[in-house]
Automatic annotation (TrEMBL):
Record organism: Streptomyces thermospinosisporus
Keyword annotations of the record: DNA-binding, Transcription, Transcription regulation
Descriptive protein name: LuxR C-terminal-related transcriptional regulator
Keyword Iron-sulfur: no
InterPro entries reported in the protein's UniProt record: CheY-like_superfamily, Sig_transdc_resp-reg_C-effctor, Sig_transdc_resp-reg_receiver, Tscrpt_reg_LuxR_C
Length: 227
């Protein structure tokens, strides 16, 4: 039996792609929206069984405030966080706010679905490997953890970073070109270079990689042509 869901992520393209995949698996997606800041009001008004909430910065202060509000106003709604490999602080913050589960951004759709089903059933939905990794990091913290997001950011030119941000926001080639004041053919070339440098084969993969590594949180947001 399908689950009534709301999918929210700061990057609309990711929310819509995940919603489409879950619909194909028989679930009823009431809404796929961005940004995460509006998740609480949306959930309170639509009352799904589960809210799948994506974040690229689980350790950032206040990031799980929408979860707190959801559990206060609609305690029957289970919240599953979809985020990067969490730090102990991040995964603890998610559950402290009232989340029922935590799933990695790069988890296969089957794993996301299992977490959703467990959360609806009132169970904690978090992979044992995530918990083990969190405890291992607490006991043996890395002296200099690999910063994949920063490494990827340094591979791109400022213009390519802007293109990546726009891709993650769901803009197509025409909109990217208009927003940057360049020809569509030039925008298309920039997109292809970004995909090549990131080592991915599609815009969706590029957006997912950027979100998972926190690259987008470090990038300057593009201004509109009117700004």
């Amino acid at each position: 039996m399908g689950v009534r869901l709301i999918v929210v992520d700061d990057h609309r393209l990711l929310a819509e792609a995940l919603a489409s995949a879950l619909k194909l698996r028989g679930h009823r997606v009431l809404a796929a929206a961005a940004p995460v800041a509006g998740a609480a009001d949306l959930v309170i008004s639509r009352v799904p069984e589960v809210c799948l909430l994506g974040t690229a910065a689980p350790a950032e202060p206040g990031i799980f405030d929408p979860v707190v509000k959801i559990k206060r106003e609609r305690p029957q709604v289970a919240v599953v966080v979809l985020g990067p490999v969490p730090s102990p602080r991040g995964i603890a913050a998610a559950f402290a706010a009232g989340a029922s589960g935590y799933v990695r951004h790069d988890e296969r759709i089957e794993g996301v679905e299992r977490a959703i089903m467990k959360a609806r059933a009132g169970e904690a939905a978090v992979a044992p490997a995530l918990l083990q990794g969190a405890f291992s990091e607490l006991l043996n913290p890395a002296a200099q953890p690999d910063d994949e997001g920063q490494r990827l950011l340094e591979m791109l030119t400022p213009r390519e970073v802007e293109v990546l941000v726009r891709v993650a926001d769901g803009e197509d080639t025409r909109v990217i070109a208009a927003g940057m004041g360049i020809a569509p053919s030039t925008a298309r070339t920039h997109v292809q270079r970004v995909l090549m440098k990131l080592g991915v084969g599609s815009r969706l993969e590029a957006a997912a990689l950027a979100a998972r590594t926190g690259l987008l949180d470090r990038a300057d947001r593009p201004l509109s042509r009117e700004d």
